[in-house]
Structure formats: structure tokens, C-alpha cells
UniProtKB/TrEMBL annotation:
SUPFAM superfamilies: Peptide deformylase. Transmembrane segments: none annotated. This is Peptide deformylase. NCBIfam families: pept_deformyl, PRK00150.1-3. GO terms for biological process: translation.
Length: 178
């Protein structure tokens, strides 16, 4: 397994629209394992392949306390959306920043797992929010896009400055980032 480099906003590669996985083969399993290791190490609760500069529709997620319940979504499709929920979101690609975002409270998602088997999942609350956040990544979208222009500008400036000064990204908010 290998730790992958996580792209930081406003890196334009985060805008790439990921392509469906055609066959869940050994290379995809390796990608999943590397992404899981990268997510746990960050630490984060979710990671999309777009964030590690791989333009494939692959997501890993673990919302459990013990960090031992990995969920893998390959080619996820959100089939139904219901209700509304506002959550303080964070993102491994936007280190140190949290902001409230409104999303659907309940969704149904279908996808393939690491073995290439299809499954369907009813998700609510944080799981639902996290899936929507990661599917956004696969579509080249970042949670910052939901914020006001003013806030977007401030975040862009702050993160560009940190990269320029070669500072370590602030760990604040990372424990629940995705
Ligand atoms: Ni994210």
C-alpha cells in the first residue's frame, strides 16, 4: 500500500470530472487500498479518487468510531434524494476550513464494491452528506462552491498563501474532513 498525495484547493485538477471504472480489476483494488490508507492516515472519514489526482469514479469512506468499517463505492449513482440537512463540512482538500452546507438528508445510492459486486444503500444524516460530498468530488465540485463568493475568495487566498509559504496545512477540522 502507498500513501497518496491529496490535492489542495484551489488546484484546478480538483475540477476534473472522473470517468466510470470499466472493470473492477487488480489495479482498482490497489487504488482502493491506497486511498483507504491515505484517508485513515490524514485522518479523514471519506476520500474521492479525484482528490488524489486519479480521474476514476472511486470513493472510500469510514464513519465508524473504531475506523474499521470501510465502505467502497465504485461508479456510485445517487438514485433518490429526500429532505434537507445542514452540516458543518470539512474536506481533506480544503485543510483547516469548515463551513455549513445544506444537502439532502436521505439518499439511496447504488454502486459496486471492491469485489465488483453491486449493492444499494439507504443513507441518512452524516453518511448521506458524506456520500453527496464525495460524489461532488467525482463531478469536479468542492464544498467551497456552495459558499458565498466572498468566503470562496478568502479560502482560496488563505490556502494559496499556506502553499506558497510551505506551511503545514492546519490540522484543525481534519479529523472529520472528507
Ligand atoms: Ni472533500
Amino acid at each position: 500500500m502507498a500513501l497518496l498525495n491529496i490535492l489542495v484547493y484551489p488546484d484546478s485538477r480538483l475540477r476534473t470530472v472522473a470517468k466510470p471504472v470499466e472493470a473492477v480489476d487488480h489495479s482498482v483494488a490497489t487504488l482502493v487500498d491506497d486511498m483507504a490508507q491515505t484517508m485513515y492516515s490524514a485522518p479523514g472519514i471519506g476520500l474521492a479518487a479525484t482528490q488524489v489526482n486519479v480521474p476514476k469514479r472511486v470513493i472510500v469512506m469510514d464513519l465508524s468510531q473504531n475506523r474499521d468499517e470501510l465502505i467502497v463505492f465504485i461508479n456510485p449513482i445517487i438514485e433518490t434524494l429526500e429532505g434537507e440537512i445542514e452540516t458543518e463540512e470539512g474536506c481533506l482538500s480544503v485543510p483547516g476550513i469548515v463551513a455549513p452546507v445544506s444537502r439532502s438528508e436521505r439518499i439511496t445510492v447504488s454502486a459496486l464494491n471492491r469485489e465488483g459486486q453491486s449493492f444499494r444503500l439507504d443513507a441518512s444524516e452524516l453518511l448521506s452528506v458524506c456520500i453527496q460530498h464525495e460524489v461532488d468530488h467525482l463531478n469536479g465540485k468542492v464544498f467551497v462552491d456552495y459558499l458565498s463568493r466572498l468566503k470562496q475568495g478568502r479560502i482560496r487566498k488563505q490556502l494559496l498563501k499556506e502553499v506558497r509559504e510551505n506551511e503545514q496545512p492546519s490540522p484543525k477540522g481534519r479529523a472529520t474532513a472528507y
